[in-house]
Amino acid sequence: MSELPGRTDVLVVGAGPVGLAVAASLAGDGHDVTVVDRQATGANTSRAAVVHARTLEMLERIGVSRRLAGLGIQASQFSIRDGDRELVPVRFDRLKTDYPYTLMVPQNITEQVLLDRLEELGGGVHRPYVATGLSQTTEGVEVALGSGDTIRAQYVVAADGMNSNIRDLAGLGYDGNGALPLSFTLADVRVDLSLPANQVLLFFSKPGMLVVAPLPDGSFRLVAEVDDAPEQPDVAYAQRLLDTRGPRRTRVNVSEVIWGSRFRIHERVADEYRSGRVLLAGDAAHTHSPAGGQGMNLGLRDAITLGEALSVALREGREDKLDEYAASCREEALHVVALAHRLTRLATAPPAVRPLRNVVLRLLAKVPAVRRGLAEQLSAIGHR
Ligand SMILES: Cc1cc2nc3c(=O)[nH]c(=O)nc-3n(C[C@H](O)[C@H](O)[C@H](O)COP(=O)(O)OP(=O)(O)OC[C@H]3O[C@@H](n4cnc5c(N)ncnc54)[C@H](O)[C@@H]3O)c2cc1C
Q: From atom 41 of ligand 1, which residue's Cα is the shortest distance away?
């Protein structure tokens, strides 16, 4: 990587998927963009494993959608089940889009594709540099780094994640619910018997919910709401989840847990996405339930919209485009947070209500408009 510059048009703080996508968008438009990240190397864990159709449509503008689509599993269907019985079939293959599926691809691969594209466009990431200070005037912003360096920029993008330092330094509030009283376990596992490789399954069983989603290396992602999630789920734990909540007719044996984690849900949206020359995007601007796999998708769509708005602001001095970005993407975030909240409540309904919920869902799913509406909301094709 070239030497850290003292000046740049746009400084992007954070090289997660969102920072990389904003930077690729700006570099592709010929702007001078600098990216810094506090970590010495990029993260290599799977984390967000879903990329939806609308996100792929938007990523086309930075030339990565086809590449990404070729590296993941194109899951044409999402199926809500109770044991072996299907309650709600959601068909992505009927969506009017060039990407009629939900793409299952681990976040580290998505980040690699975005980084490769940024490098092709002449950019890169400066590591490890932690942004620690910020001051702005009407002409520009100065960001101080932990290394003692400073960078002057016309605009700064805060893509530094949920605990964004830049957001706080810019004085932008980030209110909402603290952690919901729910605990989730997540495990990427290898199994002996093949589960459906082109479908995402969501089991609404009596003991609780379980997501089973295929990953491109042949493994499966399990996510379940549990009373007290272990720090690191082991094989026996993952096996119990499948035995008690998954398919009934066939027993699927877990042979390995490749990666595991646990999490709680926070629901927050920044009060505003813009403070003068500082713009928020991604988790720095919003965080919510992973139900429906929306978090990174929303962030990537922020990134493309923001990259284009900044490009116009730099070229034509049109700052109104930045306000437009801030208002429209914040509105979409409020919508997605509410959608993910409703899905979470549905998936984690109290045990006494679960049988009735399943009956109602089966009836509702007979209405084609309900099934289509669900596909359009999950894929965000309905947000166009
Ligand atoms: C275990 C786990 C599972 C998840 N599963 C899903 C899922 O299934 N679906 C989904 O949609 N989402 C999921 N997510 C969330 C998803 O990973 C995030 O939404 C996504 O990473 C947000 O991208 P981002 O670029 O905004 O922020 P991040 O990926 O958090 O990137 C922020 C970057 O900023 C850097 N940084 C932070 N502070 C500074 C600083 N002061 N100076 C310089 N650099 C800084 C960090 O090092 C980091 O690289 C999951 C997250 C986790 C942890």
A: 131
Q: Which two tokens stand for residue 113?
A: 């594709």
Report the separation in Å between the CA atom of 282 and the middle of ligand 1, taken as the mean of its atom positions.
8
Phi, psi of 375 (to 5 degrees): -65, -40
Q: Which residue has the tokens 């965000």?
A: 380
Whether this model's pTM surpasses 0.85: yes
pLDDT of residue 138: 85
- pLDDT per position as a tens digit, 21-71: 999 999 999 999 999 999 999 988 889 999 999 999 999 999 999 999 999
Q: How far is CA 299 from the centre of its chain?
A: 6
The residue type at 313: A
Q: How far is the CA of 161 from the centre of ligand 1 (A)?
A: 5
Region at 30 (left for phi over 0; alpha for psi -120 to 50; beta for the rest)? left
Predicted confidence (pLDDT) per residue in 127-155, tens digit: 999 999 999 988 899 999 999 999 999 99
Rounded Cα gap, residues 206 and 24, in angstroms: 46
| Paired residues of 275 in beta bridges | 278
Which residue, by CA, sits nearest to atom 35 of ligand 1? 14
With a Cβ cut-off of 6 Å, ligand 1 is lined by 13-19, 36-39, 47-50, 107, 130-131, 159-161, 165, 186, 261, 263, 282-283, 290, 293-297, 299
Alpha helices in 177-319 (DSSP H): 235-245, 295-316
The predicted pLDDT at position 383 comes to: 82
